[in-house]
Amino acid sequence: MKSYWILKGIKFTLLFALFAVAATYVVMSLWNWLMPAIFGVSIITFWQALGIFILAKILFGFGRGGWGHGGHYGRHYYWKGKMQERLKHMSPEERERFRDEWKKRCGGWKYEHWEHQKEEEPKTEL
After folding, report:
1. pLDDT at 47 (0 to 100)
2. Which one of 30, 87, 110, 125 has the minimum C-beta count within 10 Å?
3. What are the helix (H) ranges across 40-91?
4. What domain range is 23 assigned to?
5. Mean pLDDT, all residues of the chain
6. Number of domains into which the chain is organized
7. What pLDDT is recorded for position 14?
8. Strand ranges inside the chain, DSSP E
9. Cα torsion through 18, 22, 27, 30, rounded to 10
10. How far apart are CA 44 and CA 24, in angstroms?
């Protein structure tokens, strides 16, 4: 059983290294193809491309789902679902008290004024 985990660790390490080399090669190729033609900068080596790739990962994140596909925003949808479930099981009076409490805590809601204007507008038929 121990050899299974050792082989799995070696396999993971090799796949990670292969991915890093391939991603670095893609960064280097794109840089050397586009940047000299567009901005007139010099071409870069593999190690410089690796540095740019690591810097981009540090500045822009390491993946984990991306925007709206899990990651930080996936947690938003998790809590939104939990809150909708909680509100669903409340009576209208409890719901109103809950909303009033959160308005008091959060200093009002952004679209509160807009919703009142929306209700006051006369309905016209086209």
Report:
1. 96
2. 125
3. 46-60, 71-88
4. 2-61
5. 81
6. 1
7. 97
8. none
9. 180
10. 11
Residues 53 and 18: their CA atoms lie apart, in Å, by 14
Q: Tell me if 73 is assigned to some domain.
A: no
What confidence category does residue 105 fall into, taking pLDDT thresholds of 50, 70 and 90?
A: confident
24 touches 49 (CB < 8 A): yes
* Residue type at position 67: W
**Residue 38 in tokens:** 């567009």
92 occurs within a structural domain = no
Query: What is the percentage of the chain residues whose pLDDT exceeds 90?
Result: 42
Q: What is the largest CA-CA distance in the chain?
A: 75
List the helix and strand counts (H, then E) for the chain: 5, 0
Asked if residue 44 is part of any domain, the answer here is yes
- Tokens for 32, please give them: 């050397």
pLDDT attached to residue 68: 47
Q: Which two tokens stand for residue 51?
A: 């540095």
pLDDT of residue 73: 54
pLDDT at 42: 95
- Kindly calculate the radius of gyration of the chain based on its CA atoms and give it in whole angstroms: 26
Q: Please give the Cα distance from 80 to 51 (Å, whole number).
A: 39
**Position 125 in a domain:** no
